[in-house]
Amino acid sequence: MRLLRTVCSALPRGVRRCSGGTHNKVRVRFAPSPTGFLHLGGLRTAFYNYIFAKKHGGDFILRLEDTDRSRLVPGAAEGIEDTLEWAGIPPDESPRRGGMFGPYEQSKRLNLYHEAVQTLLENDTAYRCFCTPQRLELLKKEALRNKETPRYDNRCRHLTTAQIQDKLSKKLPFVVRFQLVEGAPSFKDLVLGWTQHDVASIEGDPVILKGDGFPTYHLANVVDDHKMAVSHVLRGEEWLVSTAKHLLLYRAFGWQPPSYAHLPLLLNKDGSKLSKRQGDIFIQHYEKSGYLPDTLLDLISNCGSGFLGNQKGRTLPELLEQFKLERVSSHSAFVDLSSLPEYNRIHLSKRIDSIESRAELITQLQTVLQEKYKDLTFNKDYIERILILRKGHLCMLTDLLSSNYSYLWIRPSVYLKDLHSLSNEATEIGNLVVGILQKSHNDMNLETLSKDLKIHLQQLKATKYSVSMKLLRRILSGLEAGPSIAEMMMTLGPQESIERIQNALSS
Ligand code: GLU
Q1: Which of 344, 356, 350, 355 is nearest to 398 (CA)?
Q2: What integer pLDDT is reported at residue 279 of this predicted model?
Q3: Rounded mean pLDDT of the chain?
Q4: Which of 164, 184, 406, 465 has its Cα between 20 and 30 A from that of 122?
Q5: Atom 3, ligand 1: which residue's CA is nearest?
Q6: 225: Cβ below 6 Å to ligand 1?
Q7: Could you tell me the maximum CA-CA distance found in the chain, to the nearest angstrom?
C-alpha cells in the first residue's frame, strides 16, 4: 500500500465547516458494523465523534452498517447502542432514537443504494460485472503464484452494450463495480495533513453492489454520509486507505465530500495491535466487572491525545472543555490496560464525593449485598459511612464484597482463648476500649478516637500497643490486616464495636 502523507503543520488545521454544500452544521457519525460488540477501539471512535459534535454544537449520529448479512452477530446492534448510553455518550440520532435522516440501519436503505448505483451506471462510472466466482478464483491463484497481490483485472469494464444486453437477457448473475480512475484527489486530513493514495494503480475495480442486491461498505458509506449531511468523518486510521475510493465516488456522483480526520491506531503497551480477539477489550466486559464509564473515557482520552496533556481523573465536562481536534496527534496511541484499576479508584472517589452519584452507588451496593447475603438487610446510612471512610482505598465498588471486607457485613467468630494467646490482658484491653467507646459515643470522630486509643493503650505495662491493635483487629474483623482500628470502629459505629468486644470477651 503506497500512501503519500505529508503532515503539513503550516496549513491551518482544525474544524472546517463545509462550505458550498448542504452542510452548515457539524454532523458526525459513528458507523460500526454490528458484527460484534463494542470494544475499546470502537468506543474511542464513538467518543471522539461525540465530543467533536458537542464541542461544536453539532449532531452525533449512530448508523449501523449492517450490509454484510453473513457476519451479523445477534444482539450486537442493541448492545452497541446500550453501551453508548451506558458510557454517557448517547447519539442524537440512531436506530432506537430515530431522526430526520433515518432509517439508521443500512439494511433498511437499500432503495437509496440502488438509486445511487443507477446514477453511476448511467454516467458510466460503474459497470456490471458478469465474471464467475471460478474466474475470480483463477485470477487470485495466478496472482499468488506470481507473488503479486490479487486484484480484479477490470475485464467487464470493456463489455459492449450489446454484450451486456445479451448477458442480461440470459439472466446471468452480475455484481456492479465502480471504475477506479487514475488520479485520486489528494485531501487534507484534519489529523494527518495532506494525503494522497493512488488507489487505481494498486487495486482492481471494487464491487459496490453485490449479487444479493446489498451494497458493499464503500458505496453505502458514501451514499449515507452524503444523504445524512455528515460534515466530518472521524474514524480510525485503518480506514485511511478507503478514503481515496470514497473521494472518487463523491466525484462520480458530483457531491461534495465531508472533511476527514483519521484517528491514530490504538496499540497495546507492547506495540501490538489492540485486537477484537482479546476478549477483555469489550466494553460490556468492563461494565460487568464494575468499571465506571468515566474510567474508560479517561483512559481512552489519555492515550489518544486531543486534550491538554495526560492527566488522570478528568470527567466528561472537563474533557469537553479541553478537546481540540488540532491536539490529536498523528502518532499511534498506546493503551495501558493495567492502569484501569487506578483510573477507577480515582473516578470512584469522585463519585463518592458527589451526593447524587453516591446515592446511586449505595443502591447498587445494597442490591449486590442482598444477592450475596440473602437474609440480611443493609442500612443506607451504614453503607454511606463505609463509602466515605474507605474512599480512595477502593478500586471497585465490588471490592467491598471481598473476604477482606466481610467483617463489615457479618460478625466474625472470635474466642477469648485465642485472644489470650496474644495477650494475658485481653479482658482488660477489651473493657478499657469499651469504656472509651461509651464515653465518646455521641461525638466520636476519627482523630479523637485514635488519640484516645493511643493514650490509654500505651499505658498498659504487659502488652505492647501494636499487640493491642492486633487483638482489637481480630475482635472487630477476624483479620490480621486492614484499615486502622479507629477507622474500623468509626465504620462499624460505637454500639456494634462494643457488642463485638463484649461478645468476644464472654465467648
Ligand atoms: N463500518 C465501518 C466500521 O465498521 C465504518 C468505517 C467508517 O467510519 O467509515 O468501522
Answers
A1: 344
A2: 61
A3: 92
A4: 184
A5: 32
A6: no
A7: 112
H helix or E strand, kind and range, residue 500? helix 494-505
Rounded CA separation 408/430 (Å): 20
| Ligand 1 proximity of 258 Cβ (cutoff 6 Å) | no
> Which of 305, 397, 311 lies closest to 351 in space, CA to CA?
397
Give the distance (Å) from ligand 1 centre to CA of residue 248.
18
Closest CA to 337 of 392, 377, 393, 282: 282
Q: Which of 188, 276, 312, 324 is catalytic?
A: 276
Using 50, 70 and 90 to split pLDDT, how confident is the model at 12? Answer: very low
Q: Which atom of ligand 1 is nearest to the CA of 35?
A: 4
Atom of ligand 1 nearest to the CA of 242: 9
Please enumerate, as own/partner, the contacts of 270-273 that have beta carbons within 8 Å and a separation of 24 or more: 271/334
Say how far apart CA 248 and CA 222 lie, in whole Å. Answer: 10
Residue 232 burial class via C-beta count within 10 angstroms: exposed 0-12, middle 13-18, buried 19 and up:
buried
Task: For residue 210, indicate whether it is catalytic.
Answer: no
Polymer length in residues for the chain? 507
Is-contact 316 350, C-beta < 8 A?
A: no
221 lines ligand 1 (CB under 6 A): yes
Pairing of strands 4-6, 193-196: antiparallel
pLDDT at 407 over 50: yes
* Mean pLDDT computed over 68-75: 92
DSSP state of 285: H
DSSP secondary structure string for all residues of 67-134: --GGG--TTHHHHHHHHHHHTT---SBBTTTB-TT---BGGG-HHHHHHHHHHHHHTTSEEEE---HH
- Give yes or no for residue 31 CB within 6 A of ligand 1: yes
Q: What b/e readout covers 26-57, taking b as 16+ CB neighbours within 10 angstroms?
A: bbbbbbbbbebbbbbbbbbbbbbbbbbbbbbe
In sequence order, the 6+-apart residues with CB closer than 8 A to the CB of 428 are: 460
